[in-house]
Structures are given as C-alpha cells and as structure tokens.
Design brief:
Layout: H1 14-26, H2 31-34, E1 42-48, E2 50-52, E3 58-63, H3 68-77, E4 83-87, E5 90-94, E6 105-107, E7 115-121, H4 125-128, E8 136-144, E9 148-153, H5 157-165, E10 174-178, E11 183-187, E12 200-211, E13 220-231, E14 236-238, H6 244-252, E15 260-263, E16 271-274, E17 288-309, E18 313-330, E19 333-352, E20 361-364, E21 367-375, E22 386-393, E23 401-402, E24 413-417, E25 428-434, E26 448-455, E27 463-473, E28 479-483, E29 499-501, E30 504-513, E31 522-532, E32 539-544, E33 550-555, E34 578-586, E35 605-609, H7 629-678, H8 699-718
Parallel strand pairs: 1-8, 22-35
Antiparallel strand pairs: 1-7, 2-6, 3-5, 4-5, 4-7, 8-12, 9-11, 10-11, 10-12, 13-17, 14-16, 15-16, 15-17, 17-18, 18-19, 18-21, 20-21, 21-22, 23-35, 24-34, 25-26, 26-30, 27-28, 27-31, 29-30, 31-34, 32-33
Helix pairs in contact: 7-8
Length: 734
C-alpha cells in the first residue's frame, strides 16, 4: 500500500482521492507500458489451481466463453487488462495481476479449480513462440528433480523463461527458477515425458515452469481411457463434433499441448479438451468429477517418424513425446533386425537394402519398403504398440510423403482351443472370454478380454486362488510372468488383479487387453490354481505399471494361512496345486492388408522420396504387401483333414453295402437248396422244416438247417442196414 500525506489546505481531502484513483488506474492496466515491454514480448503465463480474488479490479465478466485461448486473447487486445480467471464457460478480466497484488492470489476453493493467466514480458516471446495463447505453465513451490541439463543465473522468472525459449543445443521443455538463489535450471524433460510421481516434488521458494511452446509429436498418437471421471475445468469445449475420433484429432492438432479429452459425456456431440492430465494435476485437490458412464482419454504416447534414404540403406528415425523403453524392429525379423531402446526420446533403426537380417523388400525398381514395429514391452505386443510401413522411392519427383492417419489394423483373434485340467476335487477350468464372461469368437490386439478361472461344480465347498500365471508363445521360446508367486500382477498395464466374479470365490477373473508375441500367433496361458476351505483371502498388491503409476489393490492370488489341522491325517484343504492351461490364436495386429479387401483397416505408411521433406497420405492398393504363411498353412491342413474324413466315411459305407449284398445272396442260395432237399424223392418221410418263410430266416438259421440235412444224408448212405436198397430214415434215428 502506498500512503501519501498531502499538504493541509481547505480542499486537501480531494487530493489524496485523486492520486489514489490515478495509481489504481495506471499500475495494473499499464503493466507492460511501465516496463517498456515491446509488443513482440508481451505474452501470458498460466497458473493452474489458483484464483485471483480482487473484486475492485474486475474489468469485465464474460459468461459463455468456452475457450481458454479466446479468454486470453480478449485480455491481450485490451491494454488495460492484466490478468484473467477462467473456468469452463466463464471468463473474468482484471485490471491487476498477481505481480503487483500477490496477496490477492490464492488456491481455488474446493470443489472447483480455476485457471489463472496473467500478462508477462518475456524476451522474444512472440517471435520464438508464435500462435500460442500462453507460453509457460507455472507451478509455485514445486520443482522437477534429477533432469537438469544446465544451471544458469537468472535475475527474474521472466529471464529464466527467456533462457529456456532461446535454448538451441537441445529442446528446453521445463525449468526450475529458484527465487532465493536466483538460478535457472533448464531441462529437456517435463511432467509428460517422465513419470512425474518419481520426479515432481514440493520445494518452497522454487517455481516450476513448463514450456507450452515445445514441439509436440503428432503423427501417431495413442490415448488411454480412464473410466468413471471427467475434468471439472477444461481448456476448450466444441459442439457438434461428429465422432470420438474427430474429437481426438482436434486434441492432437490443437495449438496448445493437449493431453486429454472427453467426448459425449456432458452433452451429445460435445468434445472437451485440456492441456492437463493426471500427471500434471497432482497438486490439485480432486480435479476430476466422478461419473459412472464418463470416460476421459489421456495421451500416453505420440510419435513422429521420418525416413532418411541413402544409396543402399534407409534409417527410420523416431521422435516421441515420452521417454521410451522398449524396442523397434522389422516386422518379419523381430530377432535379427531389432534395436533395444532405454530411456530415450529419439531413436532410430538401420535398414539395409541388401541385408537379409532386416528383409527389406524391393517392391518395384527403385522402390524399397519394410514394416517396422515400435513395441513398448520387451517381450509381447500390446494395443499400445505401433506398426508402420517405411519406404524409400528413388524414381519419383522430389516429394516426401507421409500419412498422419492413425493406424488401426484389425487382427482376428480366434480361439484355437481351451485345454481344461480336471482334478479330483474340484474340477477347474481356464477360459479366455470377454469382460462379461462370454466365450470369444474373434477379437483384435488391444480388445478387452479376460482370463476366467472357474470351479465346474457349483455346489463345491472349495474356493480357489491363482498364482504363477505365465503367458508363452506357441513356440515355447518366450514367456512372461503375469501373476507372480504371491498372486500379484507384475504389470497392471498388461494384466489386472484377480477379482471374484459376483462375490463368489469359485469364479475368478482377471481383465487384460489382447496381446501377442512377435514370433508367434499363439498365446498360451498356464497357471497354478490351489483350492482352499473355507475361503481364500486376497493379498494386498503394490505394483508399479508401465507408466510408473504405483497402485495398491487386492488380488485373489494367495491362500489364507491355514491352521495346522493335519493331526491324524486330517487336512483343511487340498495340498496340491492344480495346473490349468489355455491357448488362443491372435493374428498379426500389423498386417497391412488391402483396403479393398478389409474396408475397416487403415494403413499408416511413411514413404520417403530421395530429396524432399513434404509428407502426404498414400492410399493406393499397390502399396500393400503381406502374406500370412501361418494362417495359410493352418487352412490347408484343415482342408486336407476334412477331405480325408469324407473319403474314409465314403469307403466305410461302400464296403458295408457290398458286405450286405453278399450276405443276402448267400442266404438266397441256401434257401433255394433247402427247398429242393425238402422234396427229395429218396426220403420216405419228409424232413421236418421250419414253419416260416425262407426269406425270414437269418443267415445263421440257414446254415444250421443246412448242417442238419448234411447229417441226414450221411446216415442214409453210410448208416447200418444198407443192402443195396434204400431204407427209410425216421425221425427217431436222428
């Protein structure tokens, strides 16, 4: 506060009033002019979670403003405006800012949070960062540890911002300004490129500055759904957006660094976007609004891919927005043409044209191409991974072509079979199902699936727990542990915790997104299941996922400690572990098929001509090249097997028919001979015969009758009393 003591005279009371009004009007509104700040240096900084409380300095209130950039631009065009408060749908302009009224800046009151932006003067800001509403997002009393590239002296926070913007040897993404030591630590990392849980900490007297002008990869981006919550305050709201993909594309192509969006949760065809994500809102109390049917999509990874074409090789260069751990390899040579990547934002893969290890194909004279996979996990392919086709064309005009269309290659996920292990008590099955427990007929990599362990006998007194769950490829050459010996998931991003289904310990389920191994279409699951009585208690698991998020959850993967009731041979439960296994077939996610044959399949191609750097999409079917030999072999085998079954069945029926005809012919012959013998004139007394038609006699009966007649003839010709004449044979002689 400035206190003025004017001279005493009869009208002295009006002088201090006039001077006070003059100070109020000039101090905040003429901030930039008072600092002699050139127009090109006037810009804005953003402070999230704080609100400027100064009703006496309100310049204007504008309801219905749905864009943060629009609110800032209104203030930029008004020379008397110094700062703004923004909430979704409300923009408040002030003649003062927190620079000359720091006591008026306080944390937003729960349950809402406000975005506060104020004018500042940063050297060459508009030149080095054109077209951005704000240049830095400032977090007071926080700092990022362990990633400083350089430490420089800085008199003010604006000086620290200017040094970050003007850095040319590397991309400055953030800085720590120490208000006490007057130092500036600049870094090529920020809260999005690294796991902020392990690097972002409170620090009194230090301001963390995040650069909104840093280049953002946008060619290939993946978003992860977070169900049940949406942000309370967002940067932009758009109406009449036709689809979720269109909303996602708006986020990727936005003028600021958009990191999350939601679609259709606050109204039909409403798209809301924000530069914040769960990584940047840790210092805000409950920034999300819980809603059962809502979903927020957070950016997990973005890639820019370029191709360097040389005389006899090409290099696929990848730039990502997040520190990458995984590998990049040629699709057809996952073991021989691969590069392991550890904690890098930029990496590349060398592809020699005559190198058999990488299998680069010459599609036409002067045109070389190869499929490249960017795989996050070291062993398995997941829905987060990216498939690209890179090409070099040496015989076209000087253009460089790339597609910024998101790749969505469907791969049929067919059940090859389920192998159920039957134990004495109880019987347990392992099935691969959807999240509702229904058997799946087809799926694709990244689809929502589940592993379901179930006791067949509904009245069984047992419950079960699962541990040592392993996924293996079809060649038994690679495997990954999904559930450890304690019963805890090793990586939440691959497989979730084991949960009871409908509160029953007889049915357990673990959700996962479909994945495969690079070397095989088959994924085999094997686990140890142990029954217990009366109940299996869950184990508390504390696991860090791929993105560094540490989660604590319960998993039904450990049997409760049993009391020693094995006195005199008695036991409270089964002592033996049961092994259950299952297998599914997942066709290649990155099979780049023709769009005419698969209309729902999009192909992402990176094609580099030999001289230019301009990229355009390429949709021609001639660019497609793929042959799934495993699927072809399996289909051929099934076809041959079916033909053999049909041939065997026909042969069996044919011989059966011939045999029956032969038996009927023999029976007819016996019947004819029997009739003639019954009328033999040499017999004085007719031989007794059956009183059934001959056609009704079976083959055995005919043979029996034939045997009796042979016996009678023997007695007639060779019996006692033969004297050259025939004697009668009576029934008693038989």
């Amino acid at each position: 506060m400035i206190r003025i003591n004017p001279p005493r005279h009869p009208h002295s009371h009006s002088v201090p009033l006039l001077l006070t009004l003059t100070l109020v009007m000039l101090s905040p509104g003429a901030l930039v002019r008072s600092q002699n700040c050139p127009t090109r240096d006037v810009t804005f900084e953003l402070i999230t979670g704080y609100v400027f409380t100064a009703p006496e300095f309100i310049l204007d209130t504008r309801p219905g403003v749905l864009l943060l950039e629009e609110c800032i631009e209104v203030c930029r065009q008004n020379v008397t405006c110094a700062s703004v408060n923004y909430e979704t749908g409300l923009c408040v302009l002030f003649m003062a800012s927190a620079r000359n009224n720091p006591g008026s800046l306080s944390r937003s009151q729960f349950p809402v949070f406000t975005l506060f932006a104020q004018k500042t003067c940063v050297r060459s800001a508009r030149t080095l960062c054109p077209g951005r509403g704000w240049i830095f997002d400032r977090v007071q009393d926080f700092k990022m540890l362990g990633f400083a590239r350089e430490t420089r002296p800085a008199d003010t926070v604006e000086d620290c911002m200017a040094q970050c913007l003007s850095q040319i040897t590397f991309t400055c993404r953030s800085a720590n300004f120490d208000t006490l030591k007057l130092t500036c630590e600049i870094s090529d990392m920020d809260r999005h490129t690294v796991n902020s849980r392990n690097a972002f900490f409170p620090a009194i007297g230090i301001d963390y500055l995040e650069n909104n002008c840093a280049e953002k990869p946008s060619s290939v981006c993946n978003f992860k759904p977070i169900k049940g919550q949406i942000l309370k305050t967002v940067d932009s709201v758009f109406a009449n957006i036709g689809s979720q993909k269109e909303c996602e594309q708006l986020c990727v192509s936005s003028t600021y660094r958009c990191h999350s969006y939601d679609y259709g949760d606050t109204g039909t065809n409403i798209c809301r976007m924000s530069h914040h994500s769960s990584e940047t809102l840790r210092n805000i109390r409950e920034p999300y609004l819980s809603a059962a049917q809502a979903t927020t999509y957070e950016l997990t990874s973005c890639f820019n891919v370029s191709v360097d074409c040389q005389a006899n090789y090409m290099i696929a260069k990848v730039h990502t927005n997040r520190v990458f751990n995984g590998k990049i390899y040629g699709k057809t040579r996952p073991n021989s043409c691969t590069i392991n990547v550890e904690n890098k934002l930029d990496f590349e893969l060398y592809l020699g044209f005559n190198d058999i290890d990488c299998d680069v194909k010459q599609e036409t004279p002067g045109r070389f191409g190869s499929d490249v996979i960017i795989q996050h996990h070291d062993m398995i392919v997941t829905g987060e991974d990216v498939g690209l086709k890179v090409r070099c064309n040496y015989n076209l005009s000087n253009t460089t072509i790339v597609s910024d269309t998101n790749l969505s290659v469907k791969g049929g996920l067919n059940i090859a079979g389920a192998e159920n292990t039957v134990v004495r008590s109880p019987n347990v099955t392992l099935r691969v199902t959807d999240r509702l427990g229904l058997d799946i007929l087809s799926a694709q990599v990244g689809d929502a699936l589940a592993l379901r362990f179930e006791i067949v006998e509904k009245e069984s007194p047992y419950e079960i727990f699962v541990r040592d769950l392993v996924a293996m490829d079809g060649l038994d050459s690679s495997e990954i542990v999904l559930i450890d010996s304690r019963g805890c998931p090793t990586d939440f991003s691959i497989l979730g915790a084991i949960k009871e289904v409908e509160g029953s310990g007889k049915v357990l389920q673990s959700d996962f997104d479909a994945f495969k191994f690079p070397t095989s279409d088959l994924v085999q699951f094997r686990a140890l299941v142990t029954p217990c009585i009366p109940r299996c208690d869950p184990v508390q698991c504390d696991v860090t996922d791929y993105y560094g998020k540490r989660q604590t959850t319960s998993s039904f993967g450990r049997r409760r400690r049993r009391r020693r009731r094995q006195i005199e041979g008695q036991d409270t439960g089964s002592k033996s572990d049961l092994m259950v296994a299952g297998v599914i077939r997942i066709s290649d996610k990155f099979e780049l098929a023709s769009r005419k044959e698969q209309p729902d399949t999009l192909e992402r191609e990176i094609i580099r001509e030999d001289t230019h750097n301009v990229w355009t999409p390429q949709d021609s079917p001639e660019h497609v090249s793929c042959l799934n030999t495993v699927s072809f072999s399996i289909g051929a085998t099934i076809f041959v097997f079916v033909q053999c079954v049909i041939l065997g069945a026909w042969t069996y029926l044919y011989y059966r028919r011939e045999r029956k005809k032969s038996e009927d012919s023999l029976a007819s012959s016996l019947c004819s001979r029997s009739s003639s013998e019954d009328l033999d004139p040499y017999f004085v007394v007719p031989i007794p015969t059956h009183h059934r038609p001959c056609s009704d006699l079976s083959l055995e009966e005919h043979r029996s009758s034939r045997s009796q007649r042979s016996k009678l003839q023997h007695l007639e010709h060779f019996g006692p009393g033969r004297s050259g004449s025939f004697r009668g044979v009576y029934p008693r002689d038989l």
